[in-house]
Backbone:
């Protein structure tokens, strides 16, 4: 069935008023005031459809529509609504709003389904605030510990644990959020590609075969602060110059492995004291290595570590490398991919198997139940950016394929 | 006369309680609350000695002791008490406290002098807050404009002009702060070396022959923000990777000119948006080039500009280079240097002519009247740092040579 998109657009408009600033895009950091307000809007939308709402121990929102057979496992769909700083209208939010629209359609059209259908809004998918990604789905997969919740902190020093407490959740009951595999049949997430492959190749739907996983590092470099005028070049232990060499090493090693679809990025470089007339004494680098080929990722990781050591020894700089997260690439369920392909053919949509460079909650859920990730094109491949845009026909295609897939699974 | 240092140490202790935090050193940014409190303490100290206090249009503090001949030009001494973030106990502050102590000594011992003696506390010597250095002495030398005061802003966007207004000064009357050359005979500043030449060579006093001048640049780099996982290495326009190449170019060009005593430093690198999963779209670099050989400095400047262009063209990065300040190295008065040498011999102190790598208020004053800059060693050459330290005997030597020099000039 090809669905109308007006409802979806209305829902996107409503939720994207929260955290929006002209010229700045949308900022709804995980568990922030804005995030909480947007989550309440989602709950309200689901209640209007008569769905049964619950929140688990880490704040994931669940909205359930019973099927005709209450003993069957549920069919799940969902995504997240938190954003990066100055993010766009679609990342995550599209998957949640499309899922609500699918629920609405099933409800309005009184479509019968045997399996219960569940919508989930994952908490804290973006790592921007707490330097840890896909928190909600990690909790479902049982791959999160209370000590991790306590150790991940935002820029103000607030731990993820305390932020959850503050919002009324129960991080100490983390284990109760684990999803027993027998409770769910499958999970489907609709998302924008966040790249430009589909757009360039003029393909409607991307069917993700594997999700790249990030390895994340923090490198602390300690040199010697000194006056920028009176310390001769040959006596310096400049932490920023060492950092510059490491940043270029990250890029070089990422490029060397790009044939294996591995990428490497230094996302931030913080300089202390950061004054114009002081040689930097301390620098922090934040590095993200991603790919779908673990061996290739590890080659980048090991080369960056070895070259950091070499650069710092040469420059007499102390360093400390902390691996903030280390995840494995995840292959997705072939049967479910086949099901999505069938539905594409039914709807007359072109499709392509592809990897996902970005991480998604699907990668955690895929560890416990069959899971599918469906991409639609975004304009210019731009994402995590206020200029994120999706063409109307692609919104329609995405909504239709999500609907067909959920119904074919829940029937 | 060899002076006792107890008074000087008491004064340093008193003023350095302001802005001090354990483990963080001293932070008294120009025109901050802390700076203002410290300046009030200076005024109080000077009033106790019966000195006549005034503040000029930009907030320089003047404290005057009349001599026996009111028609003679004054002999000036002074420095500044604002600091870099997390600075030390001596930079600038030593010169002010020693000058007060010299006044105290002349007062107590009832030493006769024909010339008036004036103490000046220059405003905003450090560039840390407003990205412009030696503001107070620039005003005296007439090398400051109201538009510069309005254009230099701190991290919160407050202009130097507004900060002066806020503290009750009269930036619009900037011209009234200009020092007519006939009003002053000479200026003497006592300062720590901020390098380790004197310590290494075991010399008591540095007599500065020339002061290096900084050329300061801001380089803005604009690439393309994109998701760190889904944008292939070959499609990236990463502003931070371009910045890393420029940082290394600054270092390389500084090293190439180090035989001419030129140095080059990137003091800060600000990354936007600075999230772990976003390719940096925008970076600002802050660069400081210094030397006593203008041609050598210009070679570094031109090479950095040329290489920035090359790097940005290669990487498809937009860039904007702004020259924030561009000063010329200043040679100091030979006669005054000879006078200081004579006084060193009289006191039995070893001395050495040397350049000053760091800028000082003296360089501006030297453009209008004979000016001298006297260095004492600091431990390990460490400065602009909470670990800044001066040996007791060097404090004593510095105080004594300042006293002898002022008295020999004012007699």
Residues:
């Amino acid at each position: 069935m090809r669905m109308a998109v007006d409802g979806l657009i209305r829902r996107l408009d409503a939720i994207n008023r929260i955290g929006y600033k002209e010229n700045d895009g949308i900022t709804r950091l995980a568990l922030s005031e804005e995030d909480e307000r947007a989550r309440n809007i989602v709950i309200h939308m689901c209640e209007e459809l008569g769905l049964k709402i619950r929140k688990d121990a880490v704040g994931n929102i669940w909205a359930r529509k019973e099927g005709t057979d209450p003993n069957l496992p549920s069919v799940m769909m969902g995504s997240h609504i938190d954003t990066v700083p100055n993010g766009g209208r679609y990342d995550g939010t599209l998957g949640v709003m499309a899922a609500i629209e699918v629920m609405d359609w099933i409800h309005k059209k009184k479509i019968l389904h045997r399996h219960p259908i569940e919508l989930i809004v994952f908490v804290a998918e973006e790592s921007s605030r707490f330097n840890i990604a896909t928190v909600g789905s990690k909790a479902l997969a049982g791959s999160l510990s209370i000590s991790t919740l306590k150790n991940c902190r935002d820029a103000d020093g607030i731990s993820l644990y305390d932020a959850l407490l503050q919002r009324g959740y129960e991080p100490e009951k983390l284990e109760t959020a684990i999803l027993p595999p027998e409770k769910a049949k499958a999970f489907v997430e609709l998302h924008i590609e966040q790249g430009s492959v589909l757009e360039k190749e003029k393909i409607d739907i991307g069917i993700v075969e594997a999700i790249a996983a990030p390895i994340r590092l923090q490198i602390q470099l300690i040199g010697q602060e000194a006056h920028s005028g009176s310390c001769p070049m040959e006596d310096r232990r400049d932490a920023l110059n060492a950092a510059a060499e490491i940043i270029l090493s990250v890029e070089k090693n990422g490029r060397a492995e790009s044939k294996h679809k591995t990428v490497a990025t230094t996302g931030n470089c913080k300089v202390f004291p950061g004054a114009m007339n002081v040689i930097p004494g301390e620098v922090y680098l934040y590095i993200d290595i991603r790919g779908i080929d673990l061996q290739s990722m590890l080659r980048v990781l090991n080369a960056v570590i070895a070259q950091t050591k070499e650069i710092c020894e040469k420059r007499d700089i102390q360093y400390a490398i902390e691996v903030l997260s280390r995840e494995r690439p995840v292959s997705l369920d072939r049967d479910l991919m086949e099901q999505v392909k069938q539905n594409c053919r039914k709807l007359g949509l072109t499709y392509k198997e592809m990897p996902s460079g970005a991480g998604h909650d699907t990668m955690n859920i895929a560890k416990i139940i069959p899971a599918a990730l469906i991409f639609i094109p975004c304009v210019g491949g731009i994402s995590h950016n206020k200029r994120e845009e999706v063409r109307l026909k692609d919104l329609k295609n995405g909504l239709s394929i999500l609907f067909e897939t959920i119904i074919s699974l829940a029937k």
In short: Chain B has twelve helices and 17 strands. Chain B has a mean pLDDT of 95. The radius of gyration of chain B is 23 Å.
